[in-house]
Amino acid sequence: MTWTVKEAYYTLQGEGAQTGRAAVFLRFAGCNLWSGLERDRDKAVCRFCDTDFVGTNGVNGGKFRAAEDLAAHVKAIWEAEAGDEGPRYVVCTGGEPLLQLDAPLIAALKAEGFEIGVETNGTIAAPDGLDWICVSPKANAPLVQTSGSELKLVYPQDEAEAQPERFSKLDFSHFFLQPKDDPDQARNIQAATTYCMKNPQWRLSLQTHKLIGLP
Ligand SMILES: C[S@@+](CC[C@H](N)C(=O)[O-])C[C@H]1O[C@@H](n2cnc3c(N)ncnc32)[C@H](O)[C@@H]1O
Ligand SMILES: Nc1nc2[nH]cc(C(=O)O)c2c(=O)[nH]1
Ligand code: SF4
Ligand SMILES: [Mg+2]
């Protein structure tokens, strides 16, 4: 297995129940719901993506042929900013991280002392050994991973199958609506706010890193 990493950097988790927690974001290249090329966006399954996950040209990006090498890379990024302080936390994202995050890499990250979080679209079953699973379902994509720590739904999505009611009985500890960042963002925030106030099981997840200029 070769792991293809778009970028990796130290920041604060901006979304969901772990908002504000320091973490290394490990962004894998590639996704199963969009090529990542703008010319393909209109015909992709997932069309609202806010992320460039193509290639290896981001900060600390590259190809890694050994799990231990990638784990050492993540550890070096942590230690450059936080030294020996912990708890060490890595958030695996992308792109779709579950295309690449496997048992050897999980073991190697754990051996470096990391808690491991993942941000996934839920179309691929999560491997064992993860400490935090955030599932963000997408309309027109199969939902395979139906349990986890938090379900974070980008809102609104027009399709009937992507309404919050479809997910509210699933086996998650936290339920979030995250306003879609697009040209209608102000309206999307209002709609998500209204929904959460009418349906208190759901909480609002703002993308706080974008508010304060963090990556
Ligand atoms: C870029 S995705 C990568 C992880 C995975 N592919 C997924 O979709 O969950 C990270 C998070 O950003 C969310 N997201 C993507 N585009 C967004 C947008 N335009 N507005 C709000 N959230 C967005 C996703 O739903 C997901 O929760
Ligand atoms: N700070 C920060 N928090 C995030 N939470 C989820 C993100 C993602 O793109 O997966 C993200 C991100 O890109 N940056
Ligand atoms: S599934 Fe995630 S990474 Fe893939 S296109 Fe959608 S938001 Fe972006
Ligand atoms: Mg992001």
Please describe what this structure looks like:
This protein has helices at 67-82, 103-111, 185-198, 208-212; strands at 3-12, 22-28, 62-64, 89-93, 115-120, 132-135, 147-155, 171-179, 203-204. It has a nine-stranded mixed β-sheet with strand order 3-1-2-4-5-6-7-8-9. It is globular and about 45 Å long. It has 215 residues and is an alpha/beta fold. The protein has one domain (3-212): TIM Barrel (Alpha-Beta Barrel). Strand 8 (171-179), helix 3 (185-198) and strand 9 form a beta-alpha-beta unit. Helix 1 (67-82) runs parallel beside helix 2. The mean pLDDT is 98. The structure holds S-adenosylmethionine, the ligand Nc1nc2[nH]cc(C(=O)O)c2c(=O)[nH]1, iron/sulfur cluster and magnesium ion. Residues 31, 48-51, 93-94, 96, 119-121, 136, 152, 154, 178, 180-182 line the site of S-adenosylmethionine. The site of iron/sulfur cluster (SF4) has 12 residues, from loops. One of its GO terms (molecular function) is carbon-nitrogen lyase activity. It is an enzyme of class 4 (lyase). Mg(2+) binds at residue 51.
Q: Which features characterize this protein?
A:
single chain, 215 residues, alpha/beta, TIM Barrel, nine-stranded mixed sheet, 4 helices, 9 strands, 20% helix, binds S-adenosylmethionine, binds the ligand Nc1nc2[nH]cc(C(=O)O)c2c(=O)[nH]1, binds iron/sulfur cluster, binds magnesium ion
